[in-house]
Here is the input.
Amino acid sequence: MSQPETPSQASASIPSRVFAFFSSFGLASAVLLLLLLVTLLGTLEQLEHGLLVTQVKYFESFFITEIDMTCCLRAIHWPWGVSDGWIQPVLLPGGYLLMIVLAVNMLCGGIIRLKKECVWLVKLPLRLVTGRIRELSPAPRRVGVLIGHLSIVFMLVAGVVSLYLKKEGAVWVREGQAVNEFQSFHNSVIEIERVRPSSADGKRSVLVIPGEQFTGLTAGKARTFTSDELPFDLVVMNYFHHCEPKRATGEGPMNVDGFRLQEMARKNPMTGKVLEHENLINGAYVKVVNKQSQDAQTGIIWRSELAPWRFRAGAEEYAVSIGRRTYPLPFEVTLEKFIREVHPGTGQARKFSSQVIVKREGQPGEGESKLITMNQPLRHGGFAFFQSSFDVEAADQGGTQSSMFQIVSNPSDNWPLYSLIAAGCGMLLHFIWSLVRFIRRENKPTPAS
Here is the structure.
């Protein structure tokens, strides 16, 4: 961190002052306090608004524009009555912006030290050979502080990589079943597939519309999607984050074959808590417009529908569905056996685990046998499998057991660990050198008076 400003620095240039500001200890303290505030508010609002919504609002944003004070006060059991709907407008930096500023602060603070240590680092090999290491100044203890700064920056970079490149989802597997893909928790897609005539090679060919292109099409909004591979254009409109089809009464513009989509409350009626995003059932209206005849057909797509919406376009038949994005696995996982242990005298699970077989495509033999437990995930091929849940009813009634795995692929999975190891080594170097200097100073003979 920078030192207090001296008279010679008072007349420094504007770039020097900007650099001094971004490398200052005061800026670091302010950012850490704001991060504490943002974390507190996000933790309180998460209780009623759900994890994903709160994460996007407080930690993946540049600015926070409002705070649900009613929710926050209820979360801390505020003893006085608070009217619902108290939304306080504010302008606070979001977690994303604060992390960027903190990274810049760490880098600038490290650069100041780097300038001081450059001479020491360059001359170190020569001094080691000649045995004149004591002539070096400043002391190498500052190198430990520099390593600490850079390790924190590396940890922040790991967070950014995780935000943009991490894949996370889940898959249900029955005993004896093999899977080679999993579904995302939050990322929705619309899939368009030609079902008749089928492809010559028997493989599926699906066109995918990512969720960020249609999840904002609510309240009468619409967007047209077109492709040279399709004989029609697809119009997506009136998207619902959580809905169910209802039988329509009377005529209406959004009545399709006697049904319409009705938005549902996002709160669990039993607990009063907001449903997590992965438990929402989304849906939308779609309209197919033939490119040649301009004939239009309207349909409803809904994530919990048993079958996709089908229609004909000339001599071909297509299916349109909405669901979670699917990620392929570079290997196959087969659930060999699910094991459940309960506390004596109760039906409460004490431990549950899954015995699986992992096999890569084209691998000879039966594959490798692995055990996944609640506290011991399976890490293979860049993916981590966590034992998340199981079918309680099947386990109690002796039916076919099934297990749910939470699957995560994160390129920066171990980067925080490496960062902590580097920070620990830097601190250790700093403390050891400080201890050596202290011992030398204490053992230095006192000059005679």
Observations:
- The chain has three domains: 1-120, 167-179+328-409, 185-326.
- Residues 95-130 form the longest helix (36 residues).
- Residues 1-120 form one domain.
